[in-house]
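Narrative progress, year one. The postdoctoral researcher (J.K.) led the effort to move from monomer predictions toward full complexes, under supervision of the PI. The following entry was the first complex the group processed end to end, covering 595 residues in total.
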Amino acid sequence: MHIVVCTKQTPDSAAKLTVDAAGNVSWGDSPIVINPWDEYAVEEALLIKERLGGNATVTVISMGPEAALEALKHAIAMGADEAIRIWDPAFEGSDTLATSYVLAKAIQKMGDVDLVLFGKSAIDSQTGQVPVEVAYRLGFSPLTYVIKIAELDPAGKSITVERLLEQGRQVVKAPLPAVVGTIKGINEPRYPSFMGIRKATRAQYPVWSAADIGADPAKVGAAGSGVRWTRIFPPPAREGKAEIIQAETVEETVRILVDKLMAEKVI
Amino acid sequence: MSNDIFVWIEQFNGQVAGPSWEAIGAARTLSGRLGGQVCACLFGQGVEALAKDAIAYGADKVFLADDPTLADFRLEPYAALMAELARQHGPAFILMGATFRGRDLGPAVAVELETGCVADCTALEFQDGQLVATRPIYAGKLLSTCTVPERRPAVFTLRGRAFPKPEPDPSRTGEVIRVAPVRKEEDIPSKVVGFQETVGGVNLADAAIIVSGGRGVGGPEGFEPIRELARVLKAAVGASRAAVDAGWIPYDHQVGQTGKTVSPDLYIACGISGSIQHQAGMRTSKVIVAINKDPEAPIFQLARYGIVGDLFKYVPALTAELKKRLGA
């Protein structure tokens, strides 16, 4: 079984972000890390491989410039078998429509892929659109918000998953190949081992260009995109500090609070 | 191409998701400027009665597909039908709620139509003839604006509770057009084989009031007073990552960067320090109340009202006071 995990790099979730007048986002000394949601996808791929007695290959891919290596290295250190970075200057400015085209072309090039795993979304642009779009481009079963893979039958080419929706869990059975968007709760991602980190340092990280994957130049980068980002700016600041309510007794304090909430018409 | 706006009306067991009506409201506002019609796309089985609700909320036209293949939401038949309707009628925009299903359907339709989809919009307005969407990025630490400059239709998913829900007007009239599904059951690979509904809880995304607990609740039993307060307020129960990671409450309740993003009228944070990641999930709440022992907790920077003290004293007292006032 061939499992592909799609990842990207993001600033650490604890990063303090600033943005300049030109819309360039910076994150100070905070490190660039694997998108935290993607760790669940990598972990799930490794768990599947373990369940299959090692009878699977886990390939991790990332479309991105040099910085994307951080995501790939982390996945290799966790235990993925091989990593491929997909990048070409022509990919600059891609929205999700173009990004999904590039990822789909790369997956098609591999030819024998049964399962493509994603994190729920990237914590930077947070569109959450790429998993579904890749599934559509490949004609794979689109399974998102997956909190449990209940059954995986590589021989029978089928997968059953539990999807966490607003009202509860929807259980869906679909044919392989499939795209599975994982969410937190599906597993507990492992920390890279010492051996894993050593392996990641020595591993090869080949780069596939637009030509390598046979991408149509009209479908990548700004030309292949539908959405244009026009401005990035900080949100309006919330007003100062809380009004602290402190009366003689607990009962009096909560009475004052309830008065205020009723005056605000929120209860 | 027309100046019409399509709106997907999402329903589950005949209940329409709040963000769908909010999207109808947003479409009405935009069509005031654009001049086209607001067309509701209503798919399901036994959902005909909802068509007149869609008109009451502001639709001029309803494309109604009522068929067993559409009984459960599945991406394949829903996206195929939505894309086909868009090809036939050429709307300028397609709007839907940024719910779980909407955030799947939007990009699927976008790929079918090779167009742009802007996720999770919190505002939409025309500037220089372009529809400009505002959306949070980096978990709300920053905002961005996006357009779909050339391709039509352009797809936008709208964050729940970011747009006002219109008042239904039962006297409004409109046209209901029956449409047939474009996929037969045998051409739909995904099969829904079960659904386990979450019992007895208010859905966080729709909740007008949320009561949340964090590390300060101290254990699974510490959520009891939180739940009691939530019951009195008909509120949803939220939790910080610390409480979820400790195993005190399931992940479904987590609010924050790696959980749900919520925007209720009232958010009561009990024993939550207010990490930057938690704030990312709830900072757009209208009124925030913090109850925390630590006067230095960052949550007090965000809250409008604060009580510095033991939540196990103040939360039950608040519940008792509300029972009296609300007669609950």
